[in-house]
Design brief:
Pfam families: RasGEF_N. InterPro entries: Ras-like_Gua-exchang_fac_N (IPR000651), Ras_GEF_dom_sf (IPR023578). Keywords: Guanine-nucleotide releasing factor. It is a single chain. The chain is α+β, with helices and mostly antiparallel strands. The chain has one domain. It is 36% helix and 22% strand. It has 4 helices and 3 strands; from the N terminus they run H-E-E-E-H-H-H. The chain has a 3-stranded antiparallel sheet. A hairpin with a 2-residue loop joins strand 1 and strand 2.
Length: 108
């Protein structure tokens, strides 16, 4: 199916998408892109969801705080990691490493 929209509407939508993007940079490189989302009209459920990232940054995001807007990140990661990691052992090693770190143990 094709949708036809006016150029003015297209530009407005594209501009809004750009405003809602948050780019995470490390050492001058973009390593993750997140999008701001609001799940209800009152604005009480809002936060950022991961759109894309490097394999290292996506893996590190597993132990970071997740908002109510992106509650399925861990499940999504576990369903898709084989497309961007060369071996499941990479995930296993990271999990063991994090488990041995007392500050991260509760998040593993």
């Amino acid at each position: 199916q094709f949708v036809c929209i006016a150029q003015q509407d297209y530009c407005r939508i594209l501009n809004q998408v750009e405003k809602n993007m948050q780019k995470v940079e490390e050492e001058g490189e973009i390593v993750m892109v997140k999008e701001h989302r609001e799940l209800d009209r009152t604005g009480t459920r809002k936060g950022h969801i991961v759109i894309k990232g490097t394999s290292e940054r996506l893996t590190m995001h597993l132990v970071e705080e997740h908002s109510v807007v992106d509650p399925t990140f861990i499940e999504d990661f576990l369903l898709t990691y084989r497309t961007f990691l060369s071996s499941p052992m990479e995930v296993g090693k990271k999990l063991l490493e994090w488990f041995n770190d007392p500050s991260l143990r509760d998040k593993v």
